[in-house]
Specification:
303 residues; two-stranded antiparallel ribbon; mainly alpha; two-stranded antiparallel sheet; 4 strands; 3% strand
Length: 303
């Protein structure tokens, strides 16, 4: 039974299956290739460090867990080595795998192997030192992703071996970093969307939204107030009114109401006085016409 515990163990087994020497140059080349692919050690393609897609009895798609095309998860290390060997040696010659086998059998080294793999249909990017590749240890090469400030932009894959405590801790740390990164991107995006809506409101509504700048705390309110006072919030360039100026018309209306009430009260008093004078005058005229003594005659003492 084949036992593989490290990438070097798999490289040794694959080289023996291909009839290639397990030289230091070959071991370094194959382990560099494994690191660039990230199979088994950094994804769920069990027993498949080079992410080959050859289907064998019992193998399944490493993403769906069901039989089907795509990168395979195998049943054992022996089956994984067998699948990789058959893919390299028995595939369509047009795939360009023959130079890969030749480089390994000639111990051509990492640079030559990287060039042959990149030129073939295997799909691994250049992995030789100085080749400008991004190792699959970033958990993104096989998914076509990238990193920002060392944080993967795609969620990391769960460790293939559930009993690997170190791998579990590494996965938890990477997942935590990815979660924080995603949350930060969401918060920053929502902040700029909100700020953009505020600025759009300032531009479109002008004097209507201008006074609200004095009521909004922080830099947003300051920016709104500054834009409104500079006249950028209105088509005519008119400065926005302050909160005190907005309250002034209500005080003026109340004062105007009081003045109008006083004027009406004075007018009613004048009308009442005029009516009483007119009534008294009409009474005097009526008594004079009837030959009755006036009030002055009635007040004189009799002789």
């Amino acid at each position: 039974m084949l036992t593989v515990n490290t990438p070097t163990d798999f490289a040794t087994a694959l080289l023996a299956s291909l009839g290639a020497p397990a030289s230091p140059a070959n071991l370094q080349a194959v382990t560099s290739w494994e690191a660039a692919e990230g199979g088994n050690w950094h994804n769920t393609a069990r027993f498949n460090p080079l992410n080959t897609s050859l289907q064998l009895p019992g193998s399944v798609n490493y993403q769906t867990g069901k039989p089907g095309p795509g990168v395979q998860a195998y049943t054992s290390w022996a089956q994984g080595v067998q699948a990789t060997d058959q893919t390299l040696t028995a595939s369509n010659p047009a795939y360009g795998y023959a130079p890969i086998v030749a480089d390994l059998r000639n111990s051509a080294g990492t640079q030559a192997l990287s060039s042959s793999v990149s030129a073939s249909k295997w799909g691994t990017p250049a992995f030789a030192p100085g080749g400008g590749s991004t190792p699959a240890t970033d958990l993104n090469t096989s998914l076509g992703g990238s990193t920002i400030l060392g944080i993967p932009t795609t969620p990391p894959s769960a460790p293939s071996n559930p009993l690997d405590v170190g791998g579990d801790f590494k996965f938890a740390a990477q997942f935590f970093g990815w979660s924080i990164f995603t949350a930060m991107i969401f918060i920053i995006g929502m902040f700029f969307i909100f700020l953009g809506l505020i600025m759009l409101g300032v531009v479109l509504l002008g004097p209507v939204i201008g006074p609200a700048g004095e009521l909004i705390p922080g830099p947003v309110g300051f920016a709104v107030g500054r834009l409104s006072k500079s006249g950028k919030g209105s088509g005519r360039g008119a400065p926005a009114r302050t909160a005190a100026a907005m309250r002034a018309p209500s005080r003026a209306r109340r004062s105007q109401g009081r003045n109008l009430f006083e004027q009406r009260q004075a007018l009613n008093e004048q009308r009442h006085e005029h009516r009483m004078t007119e009534i008294e005058h009409r009474g005097s005229v009526r008594r004079s016409n009837m030959g009755r003594p006036t009030s002055a005659t009635m007040d004189e003492p009799p002789f």
